């Protein structure tokens, strides 16, 4: 009998075999799934590569096109480039901790060359230059060297290789606004002077006009000029002849010509006009020949076409700025003075917003930041945008710079609030048409309150009309949280403006100081030939003089110790204080120009002050470098002999000096 053999496997072996079969099935399924995923992924390679190239996230033949040969070579080092970038970053962080900023500068330059299409390395490098390395220097010249180096790194190099990176535009705008324009750095005045001189060397002195349209139209030829000098010379034979005439005076059509124009073709009285010890020279010097050629009435139009072309070219080549976009901003936001750092922040923020529109934005706050630069730039221009510059092109640190309010930008600021508010918040249920939107509302209304006072103080029919318009706007829109009207806006406009000013009046001392400040402001504006602002400031001094005399005078013991002097006498004292102010506070040419304008506007003020200033005029004229001719700079007023004879005649307590209303 045959024995049956059980061929069944033990249970544990059967389970092991079953597990092996399951593993194979999973492996086969995973393998097939991986093959499928790889196949599907290949379909996305081309679109992803296009996106990487479009947003400059990779380096290829197209993205390296236009790079200098040395930079292009460094970008082709493959995997080693990424490793080198990591090592450089780590080394720079260690050096930062050790305050070894100069080596950081060398490594930053290398880093930018190895990754020219990556914006973050440019931001990092420029920040190190403008902030970290600059503050390691203790002289204003040393600090400006590094701040300007950081600016140029972004503006002249980084943006050329990363035109569609809004982050670089905003970073550059921030450096202009915060480092140069603001007042936080110990040497900010030096930065402002250097930037102003750099721009004035190219664009020349600003147009002497308070009409915004005149300023805009004066810039238009620059924006519309041919892009190159060769094209201009080829198409304009008159300019070609003019260039050959300039060559005879050893003046070439380049930055030297622009600087000569900026130095010597100025409309205001200059130091050279009142120099002492200058004998007439009958021989036509090279300098005189240049001035004569450049001021020839028959050649002015030809000269202006050449100058406009040169200015356009240098704006593009030296500052990487587009004159057409500069003109667009002037048409949108007012008579921009490009010597002002705030306007460069405005330019780069808005330029970046325009160039990168429709591109991938990694930070959704960038759009809001552009709006902030516009509002900050215009607001600060209203407060201190009027630049008074007496340039020293040889040593910018010796230039005289002063910043004054500029009411011309108030309407543009108001409109910017409305436009940007609508753009940002039109879909917000809290938005009210005709306002700046919920987030900008308080800032807008605060600005308008200050603007109303500024316009009313400066005076003039146009300013007063704007003040009434904005006051009516606040009455309509600036209400309490429950919707009820705010009663402080329903007092007469003059009372609204005077309220804050009169709160500072009270004692004889404070009132005397307030009136003196307004009279000094009047003289400052007159020295700039801004008669409307000068009259407005004088009228406010007069308003306070009358108010104190009628309502606040307290005659202690009948001795008149608390009585204000006659206003005319206070004004003459203000003239004396203005003239004797240190040169650092008031430039000597402002004193010369004020004295000249007093002579043909208010000669009585001159006569009141002259005898107390005669010796001082001789002293400051002789001590100036170079010395001035006192008889040319500060001539004696007409009628002084008669005035001295009649000096004891009675004086009126209030004298309008030929302008303003009598009290």
Report a brief summary of the structure.
It is built from 28 helices and 2 strands.
Can you describe this structure?
It contains 28 helices and 2 strands. The protein has a two-stranded antiparallel sheet with strand order 1-2. The protein is mostly helical. The protein has helices at residues 11-54, 69-74, 79-97, 101-114, 119-133, 140-161, 166-181, 188-203, 212-223, 229-235, 237-248, 255-264, 286-294, 300-319, 323-333, 341-355, 366-384, 410-425, 441-458, 461-477, 493-503, 508-527, 531-552, 567-580, 588-601, 603-623, 630-633, 640-645, and strands spanning 386-390, 400-404. It has 4 domains: 80-197, Serine Threonine Protein Phosphatase 5, Tetratricopeptide repeat (Alpha Horseshoe), CATH 1.25.40; 207-336, no CATH class; 408-501, no CATH class; 507-645, no CATH class. Helix 19 runs antiparallel to helix 20 (461-477). Mean pLDDT is 83; it is low at 556-560 and 659-663.
